[in-house]
């Protein structure tokens, strides 16, 4: 299946120097405050707290830095470039018109349940002109330990998670939605992925045109080495939290689906999905609200 496209600004080592123990303690306390209720994330079967205002990503030339913005003293931790931009993937994208490595400054974070914090970085880029209308992006997970002031890899390789392009008379679009929950009830936050695609059938079925499909939910369970793919998926938990869209208002699948089937509601996309993210529910509600309004009567002459 054809893939997305890509490039970006990178990084270099360097952690902000700290001169006073008290300032460091303030940072750790402030960071922990945002997740104070979640050391055992699933004890009350409530969704895990998701935040977008605890950290931000700084991009300085070829340097990537994770900066805490929840404390008086803003600590900066270097992110090795190959954690965000794998060298082979970057090489593969040298000739494509968009970059799946154009990371947004906004950072999503959530408590893991062991004192560490899950960090999700998101990228997206799209063509401003041209018939291909290509777009691509990624989601990368890291783990932050406030006590040790260290980052480590989350060890989830999802590749391109957001993508669309038009070619040979057909659309292709992909979106991987992300949720978090303690799905195996061990006290730690796990990551669920729900992929959906719009693509053109091959061979003799090509006359049927583009089709939509939402794939089953898959889980990555938290371990001491990061999140690992679960062999037998646990299915849907009683409670989960969605990771929000970053840098986009709708997914590539929504963009293409609305263009093909003239509706934000996937029930009209040939294969109704089991999962509807909250932003899509709002799109559907807005659409129904517009349709319920009576047409304007022409002014009498």
Quick overview:
This protein is α+β, with helices and mostly antiparallel strands and 301 residues long. It is built from 5 helices and 15 strands.
Strand count, sense and barrel status of the largest sheet are:
12 strands, antiparallel
Supply Rg.
21 Å
The ordered string of helix (H) and strand (E) elements is: HEEEHHEEEEEEEEEEEEHH
- The parts where pLDDT drops under 50 for at least 5 residues are 1-44
Find the structural class using helix and strand composition.
alpha+beta
What does this structure look like?
By secondary structure, the protein is of the alpha+beta class. It has one domain. The chain is built from five helices and 15 strands. A hairpin with a 2-residue loop joins strand 9 and strand 10.
